[in-house]
């Protein structure tokens, strides 16, 4: 446990609290915590997770814009909504393809000892981040799955403070689902 990990945990918790409440300031907090976690995960040889943090930081600018100015396809304001059946299928397909592709890259081109376990939360997070940015309630279900696998992965790597954070993230994902369910458009 390092001071960097402790600070990243605190900022990440504030970020999720903002996301649950639909407060757009969660996005800049995501940028900061992602930058910190890049170094934490890189040092733990979790390269998929490390590069995911770069993706999170970049996409946070997009998410911030979406929450401030985003619109639905019909021009209405961006509000909490459900995915269509087609949307669920597209997200599941995107996850499956991303998971296999990322695991292959990590296995062939890095010295990670857990390519499939590293790739799973990375692929799920790509889908979850898109859904969160567009305020689809299903993002919270995706985050539960990502966070459960991440707890095991980070425990294996000895990142105990981050394990605790992700256990809290599981609970916060349930809270997020329930809170957003009351806000469905």
Describe this structure in words.
The chain contains 7 helices and no strands. The chain is globular and about 45 Å long. It is mainly alpha-helical and 185 residues long. It starts with a helix and ends with a helix. Helix 2 packs antiparallel against helix 3 and helix 3 runs parallel beside helix 5.
Number of beta-strand segments: 0
Estimate the helix proportion, in percent. over 70%
- What is the rounded distance between the termini? 42 Å
| Largest sheet features | none
- Overall 3D form: globular
Order of helices and strands: HHHHHHH
State mean pLDDT (0 to 100 scale).
93
Rg (CA only) = 16 Å
Number of helical stretches of at least 4 residues = 7
Give the low-pLDDT segments: none
Structural class: mainly alpha
Could you tell me the strand content as a percent range?
under 5%
Please tag this protein with its features:
mainly alpha; 185 residues; globular
Please provide a brief summary of the model:
With about 180 residues, the protein is mainly α. The protein contains seven helices and no strands. Helix 2 (about 25-45) packs antiparallel against helix 3 (about 45-70) and helix 3 runs parallel beside helix 5.
Topology:
Layout: H1 3-20, H2 26-43, H3 47-69, H4 85-109, H5 115-133, H6 139-156, H7 160-181
